[in-house]
Amino acid sequence: MKVNRREFLAAGGVLSGAICANQWGLSAWGGQGGSIVRVRKDVATLTASSPEILSLKKGVAAMKALGLMDLRNWRRQAEIHGTILGAFGNCQHGNWWFLPWHRVYLYYFEEIIRQLSGDDDFALPYWDWSKDFSVPGLFWGQDNPLANPARSGEVGSGRNIGPDDIISDANQRRFVNQTVISGILRSPDFAVFAGEAAAMLGDGPGQGRLEGGPHNFIHNWIGGDMQTGGSPYDPIFWLHHCNVDRLWTEWVRRHPDGMPNDQGWLGTKYAGHFCDRNGQSITSESTGAPISAARVLNTDEIGYRYDRRTSAIPFNLANASDMRLLAGPVLSRANAQFADRAVDFKTASNEEFSGQVSSLADRDKPYSVRLRLKDVKIPKDRNVAVDVYFNCLKASKDLTITDSSYAGSVTFFHGSHEGSHGGATFLMDVSPVVARLYADRPFKPDEPIKVTLVTSSLNEAEPWTGSVQELAPQQVSIELVGPKND
Ligand code: C2O
Predict the structure, then answer these.
(1) What's the pTM?
(2) 211 CA closest ligand 1 atom index
C-alpha cells in the first residue's frame, strides 16, 4: 500500500497547525503512542528517582524476565537488530532508512516499556554525547537492569570501558563535540547527513556523516555488545539512538525542505520487523501502526518531542530540493599511494570539476561537494579512526585535524562483510574545506585533486594492528551536487 502523497502532505500541513494551536505537551492529537505528546529528556537532567528512570528500569527488568516466546523479551527485541554473536539483522545501516528505521525501533521500544512499567507517560531519555563524554552513571552498577555486564570486561567484550572512562580529547574533536555536530547539521544534503538513497531495505550504498562519524564512534568506543549487531543488548543503545534521533530533528529544523520527497524512501514499510506493546508482530500499516518513514517524520504524530524544543518540526516535503550530480571526478584505487599510516588518492586534472567549483561562489542555492569513500574494507581490528583531508599541502605525517584541509573522520560499526558489498561506503561533505581553501584563490583546472586518509588508533593506549593497504577504499570520488531544479 502506497502512501498517497497529496493526502500525506495535506495531513502534515493540518497537523502542524493543530499542534501549534494546542498547549505544548497537552496536545489532543492522538498518535499511535496515545493521546499526548511526551517529552524525551536529556538523561543528564534525570536522577535515579526520576519517573523516566524508574519506569525504564522496571520495563527493562520486565522485558528481561519475559519468556523467549514473547517478542517483547529483551533478547528477542535485540535480535530485531542483530544476534548475540554480532551479525546484523533487520536494522538499516548505510542507506537512507537508517534514521527512520531506528526511529520506529525506538518508538516500539517506548511502547513496550510503557506497557510493562504501567507508566503510559514514559518517554525515552537521550544521552547527549556531544556534551557528556562518558556513559551516564545511571547505567552502571550491580543488579541494575540498565547496566550491561558485557560492557565491562567479559572475554571479547572489546574496550572494557568503565564508569570513569571519558571520551578522549582527540576523539571528542574528531567525532562528537559540538563543533563536529554543528558541522554535520549544517550540510544541506540529506544523503550526506543521513545516508544515501537505496532501492531495497538492507542495501548499503553509503553512510551519512551522522552514522559514519559520531554514531559509529559511540558504538565502537563503548565496545562489548555495543560494537556488534547485538548492540541493543546493552541498554545504553536506546539512549544513544535517542540522541541520534534528536539530531535528526535538529537537522530538519535547519533544512525544512531537505528530506527526500520520494516514495521509495517514504513509503517503504518495515513489515514484520517490530512488535507492538502487547507483543503482536506488526505486518502492515493498516492498523495505523507507523512502520515507514512517511509515518514518523512528524514526531508529534508518534507521541514525542525533545525537551529543548517546544514547537513541532517544520518540515516541508513539497519543496524538497533533491540533489543531482553536477560533476564527479573519480580517484581510483590504481593511483593510490601508501605511506606508513596514510593513503593518498590523486587525479591529474580536474577540468570539469574546477569550472563548477569556481562558479559555486555565485550560487545561492544549496550545493555540496561530496566525498565518497567507496567500499572501505572493514578492518578486523576496529580500533581505528580514519581522518580525511582534501587537497592538503603538508605531508601526511605532519597532518593534524586542525589543518584547514581536514574534512572529518569516520570509524566502523556496520559493514557488509556479511552482505554482498565489498565493505562500508562513507559520504562526507567537503564543501566547507573547499570554501576555506579556495576563498581567495581559484581552483585551477590543472590542479590535481587529492584525498588523503590518515589512520590512527581510536583508543590511544592500544595501537591499531591493521594496515592502511587493507583499509583503503576501492574508489574515492568527489561529487559536486546541487539541487535538481537549479
Ligand atoms: Cu542499528 Cu546504532 O545501530
Answers:
(1) 0.91
(2) 2
